[in-house]
Design goal:
49% helix; five-stranded mixed β-sheet; Cytochrome p450; single chain; 12 strands; disordered N terminus; alpha+beta
């Protein structure tokens, strides 16, 4: 039986409590449930629930009762979704509907397939080569500016990396995604996106004045207005930025995406592209600062490309940076950019002996799976060799899921690898990264991992 998803009414919550009473777990405080505990330390929260109740347990977050399902088998069941039973739209909806409605992640099954295919034109090789040209230019200029901004004794510069890379990825998105020059307009759009992302985990879900949600909703209004003003001009032009490509993209029947569809997809893609990448690049920078021997290994691989000093990274050579890709994957294992993935069950199902009824919101946890010691010995140890081909083949396919899986596998994953490789190529061929002795940042893991103090690093020019 297929059931409609609830809007979270009091009657439904009471019915949901009865329907899930047989699942071990706890509901926490009235209304807020276990939200504050999970936001404060999602790793500890999941580990404590796992120790008490096992890999399937009842939880209550953001006013919604749900069932957590932990481990690679759960990831495969929910993400691969062979029987088309798990709705991404209804899973993410309560967090994203006000801010990123009708983005690709908020579509299911045939509708999702049709829109994903239309959006795929923006990630074809010709378009990707154009994006890489903009990335190479923007990244190399910004790293040079970092060196000039605060050069101290011995050519060193102290840098709070997270806000610096966040600004860079926002600026790169403005140029390669939107095709606009940096300046007041780009800055206004960047602020709007920051407010939208911050509102995702606002405890107050109604846009009352003064709340994060109100700022997020206003930010969305500004973003959508910008896209709608630009669409007709972009359709008539020949620009190669992602926004312009989408304006000219067609569905299977040959029709163009509507103005509203373009605005919805672009706002979601911008969010997904810059915040998750900012997180993953920050994680790897920290790990390389902590393990300078891996800086040396990656730098040697890059010099092995035999490119002239200061030359851009060619699209055709991306695949030659295998060690860098392994290191980036290991950083995303330790700190997956999307720590939890929600879905909603459309029909009754069973998992590990538990009957879970239709209408239940379920969640799988890349963060928990990526740190399971029975899969990843010494899970907090940075070891990129975990991603050597022969090691990967011996592991469960869904033991590593930073980009999700199945039909909803991240559409922009190749763009993420490309941008990360371009950044680290330009960084490590010109720069040594170091950390203060004994420095260990505290990480905020939800909704997207980031260091609470911004990650203080020292960079030193090496040529």
């Amino acid at each position: 039986m297929t059931v409609p998803m609830s809007t979270g009414s009091a009657d439904h919550n009471g019915q949901q409590r009865d329907a899930l009473a047989h699942i071990p777990g706890e509901d926490g405080w009235p209304i807020v449930g276990n939200t504050f505990s999970a936001l404060r330390d999602p790793v500890r929260h999941a580990e404590e629930m796992y120790q008490k109740y096992g890999p399937v347990y009842r939880d209550s977050l953001f006013g919604v009762r749900s069932v957590a399902m932990l481990g690679p088998e759960a990831n495969e069941l929910v993400l691969f979704d062979r029987d088309k039973n798990f709705s991404s739209s209804h899973g993410w909806g309560f967090l994203l509907d006000r801010l990123f409605p009708r983005g690709l992640m908020l579509m299911d099954f045939e509708e999702h397939r049709l829109h994903r295919r239309a959006l795929g034109v923006a990630f074809k090789p010709a378009a990707m080569k154009a994006y890489l040209h903009a990335l190479n230019n923007g990244i190399s200029r910004r790293i040079a500016e970092w060196h000039l901004a605060g050069s101290g004794q011995g050519g060193c510069t102290d840098l709070r990396f997270y806000p610096a890379i966040k600004q860079l990825t926002l600026d790169l998105a403005a140029s390669s995604f939107l095709g606009i020059e940096l300046g007041p307009q780009a800055n206004e759009l960047n602020r709007a996106f920051i407010h939208m992302v911050a509102a995702i985990t606002g405890v107050v879900r109604t846009p009352f004045p003064g709340t994060q949600m109100r700022k997020g909703v206003k930010g969305r209004e500004s973003i959508v207005a910008f896209f709608r003003r630009e669409i007709q001009m972009r359709r008539a032009g020949q620009e190669t930025d992602l926004f312009s490509e989408l304006c000219r993209a067609t569905k299977e029947d040959g029709s163009l995406l509507t103005d509203q569809e373009i605005a919805d997809h672009m706002s979601f893609l911008m969010m997904a592209a810059h915040d998750t990448l900012t997180s993953s690049v920050t994680s790897l920078v920290y790990l390389l600062g902590k393990h300078p021997d891996w800086q040396d290994k990656l730098r040697a691989e890059m010099h092995g490309l035999a490119l002239p000093p200061g030359a851009p990274l060619p699209y055709e050579r991306l695949g030659d940076l295998a060690l860098l890709e392994m290191a980036f994957k290991e950083a995303m294992r330790i700190n997956p950019p999307v720590p939890g993935i929600p879905r909603a069950a459309l029909r009754d199902f069973r998992f590990q002996g538990h009957h879970i009824p239709a209408g239940t919101r379920v969640a799988v946890s890349p963060l928990f799976t990526h740190r399971m010691p029975e899969i990843w010995p010494e899970p907090l140890k940075f070891d990129p060799t975990r991603f050597a081909d022969e090691v990967v083949r011996a592991r469960h396919k869904y033991a590593w899921v930073p980009f999700g899986g199945g039909a909803h596998m991240c559409l922009g994953l190749h763009f993420a690898y490309m941008q990360a490789k371009s950044f680290f190529y330009h960084l490590l061929t010109t720069t040594a990264v170091s950390l203060a002795p004994q420095y260990t940042p505290q990480w905020q893991m939800w909704p997207i991992p980031k260091p609470r103090d911004g990650l203080q690093i020292r960079i030193q020019r090496i040529r």
